[in-house]
Amino acid sequence: NGKNDLTKNVIDITGDEKPVFDINFGKHKKYSIDDCIPLAFGDFNADKVIDIFCRNTKGDRIRIMLNDDRSPTSKEQFNINITGIIYDALAADFNGDSKLDLFVLYKEKFDQIGYNGGIFWGDRIKLNVLQPLDYLFESIPTTLDANGDSYVELLGMISTDKKNFKPACVYLKNNTRSTVEILPNIDNFRPSST
Fold first, then answer.
1. Residues 43, 52: Cα–Cα separation, whole Å
2. Which of 10, 55, 130, 165 could make an S-S bridge to 157, C-beta 3.0–4.6 Å?
3. Using CA atoms, how far apart are residues 32 and 85, in angstroms rounded to an integer?
4. The whole model's pTM is what?
């Protein structure tokens, strides 16, 4: 009937075998998540299955889509609005409470220089209100344990005066915002244009 052998094998699986690829995947509405652009991934509810943090196409809402090992679809656990346009996000345990938090990079005005940053502290069920940080980010920072204290920090090009971006580290442990630590002996991360 016009199908090649590979297509027949993928579609005609029986027994306990699970298909790796279903040629009709895109045609099934049950596999799609409407109005959801994935930004970050992590195990939000601690069930050992990776969940999705996404934003809507308008860019003003974060959604947490939970996955489980019994269903091919995600279900919405929680959503929260934000004033501004969300550009990116990082999921990590920033405060050391063993619960996933979400750092969000957003702009309050479309034409502003740099990005605002803020933290949603998580509790495995929902995210709290956005806690804005008092500085701007040039781009999405990197997450790492910069000082070896077992807490995740943000490392990137950061501006404390809303004009000049310098390599810096932001410490967020215990749900507090610390001052930015400007990194010493680093004049410029950007390559020269020569």
1. 8
2. 165
3. 23
4. 0.78
